[in-house]
Specification:
single chain; alpha/beta; Rossmann fold; UDP-N-acetylmuramoyl-L-alanine:D-glutamate ligase; Protein-Tyrosine Phosphatase, Chain A; 3 domains; 17 helices; about 35% helix; globular; UDP-N-acetylmuramoylalanine-D-glutamate ligase activity
């Protein structure tokens, strides 16, 4: 497929490294370009040993001509305003992400999940339900396992369960999941996509190549999702938390149903939060498309209490319950977390400033008794908390200090919730690092 083609891998990190190695294995002539200099790149020695060309420390625009590039495999984080990417577009050189590369070589069918919120939880639920039913699922994509690496071990017996972001989907051409799940659309990553319409179009690419052998899982409560689903030529299965649907999953009489059949009582579900019901319904639709039985679904829902960093219950210290929701990197995710609790909440929030205000949080502050702020957005979050009438607001330097401050001002029965409403990159490399610091600080209290 890529034999003797000249391929530029633009940007390293995990996905770029795996893509470069795979392309080399497939017989391509690979050039890697990364903005980090040689001495700051841990991966270059391995790539050099394979004979892969490396251009580091800058993005020289003449790269495409000098290396006669046929295709560009772009790290999802690199924006389309990058001069090399723009030049490639002008010269009609395809620019893809490694998700497209993974699809091209995969023997296994793919269940792909995207949406503004809930992707990781839904992806994990689908994986666990398939596994509980005796299928052979593999986790891949934005959830932490690079797709083009995972698919190399996949056979026709496997099902690859892949979380995909709008950044990754934008770089797809032929990507066609056998089951495509679109959870919801909210304003997110507009700094990358420019407009909401561009963002929606990127998400819609999950459906655009589907044929009559494919399945589209659609949130019927979200009109933008319904509109985007028109791009799919597959069978459509719907889910709703608000109404009964004739073909799919819904809630009735405090229970979850699928196609007129009761699956489980909500009280028997381990996963907390109203928003997680949406994720559960979507997961049920996806696995029902693969003939997973009710017993497997019930077993997972009765025991699965959440993924790490997403409303993760960390433990109780002196009557206070601690929850790690570090993956809440936008306002919507934090509103969903706040909706999950009726106990008094001490909210820990703050992080990278993307230019937005936080007034959208105000209606969800009804159970919030105190706010601890940190990071670049601390003044903005303080302003929103003051507008909501919260009197107890403290500012600290980092997440660890926030845990200790929250414990000091809290009472027995309170929930102490890290749900930053912001990306972590002003202080931490990843939301995972931020969440781990929170967890470690809670253990120090113990």
């Amino acid at each position: 497929m890529y034999v003797d083609q000249n391929v530029l891998v633009l940007g390293l990190a995990k996905s770029g490294l795996r893509a470069a190695k795979l392309l080399h294995k497939l017989g391509a002539h690979v050039t890697v370009n990364d903005i980090k200099p040689y001495e700051a790149n841990d991966d270059v020695i391995e790539l050099e040993s394979l004979g892969i060309k490396l251009i580091l420390g800058e993005h020289p625009e003449q790269l495409l001509e000098e290396h006669n590039i046929d295709i560009v495999v772009k790290n999802p984080g690199i924006p389309y305003t990058n001069p090399i990417v723009q030049k490639a577009a002008r010269q009609n050189i395809p620019v893809i992400t490694e998700v497209e590369l993974a699809y091209q070589i995969s023997e296994a069918e793919i269940i792909a999940i995207t949406g503004s919120n809930g992707k990781t939880t839904t992806t994990t639920l689908i994986y666990e339900m398939l596994k509980a039913d005796g299928k052979q699922p593999l986790l891949a994509g934005n959830i932490g396992n690079v797709a083009c690496e995972v698919v190399q071990e996949a056979t026709k017996e496997h099902i690859v369960v892949m979380e995909v972001s709008s950044f990754q989907l934008l770089g797809t051409i032929h990507f066609k999941p056998s089951v495509a799940v679109l959870l919801n659309i909210f304003n997110a990553h507009l700094d990358y996509h420019g407009t909401r319409e561009n963002y929606m179009q990127a998400k819609g690419k999950i459906f655009s190549n589907q044929d009559d052998q494919s399945v589209a899982v659609i949130n019927s409560d979200d009109q933008d999702v319904v509109r985007l689903s028109e791009l799919s030529n597959g069978k459509k299965i719907y889910f709703s938390t608000n109404k009964e649907v004739s073909n799919g999953a819904y809630i009735k009489n405090e229970s979850i149903w699928y196609d007129g059949e009761k699956i489980i009582d909500i009280k028997d579900i381990a996963l907390v939060g109203k928003h997680n019901l949406e994720n559960i319904l979507a997961a049920i639709c996806a696995v029902k498309a693969k003939n997973v039985g009710n017993k497997a679904i019930q077993k997972v829902l009765a025991s699965f209490s959440g993924v790490k960093h997403r409303l993760q219950y960390v433990g109780e210290v002196s009557g206070r319950k601690f929850y790690n929701d570090s993956k809440a990197t936008n306002i919507l995710a934090t509103t969903k977390a706040l909706e999950a609790f009726s106990s008094p909440v001490v909210l820990l929030a703050g992080g990278l400033d993307r230019g937005n205000e936080f007034d959208e949080l105000i209606p969800y502050f009804k159970h919030v008794k105190a706010v601890i702020t940190f990071g670049q957005t601390a003044p903005k979050i303080k302003k929103a908390a003051e507008k909501a009438g919260i009197e107890l607001i403290e500012h600290v330097d980092n997440v660890e200090q926030a845990v200790f401050a929250a414990f000091r001002i809290s009472d027995i029965g309170d929930v102490i919730l890290l749900s930053p409403a912001c990306a972590s990159w002003d202080q931490y490399k990843t939301f995972e690092e931020r969440g781990d610091i929170f967890i470690n600080a809670v253990h120090k209290l113990k």
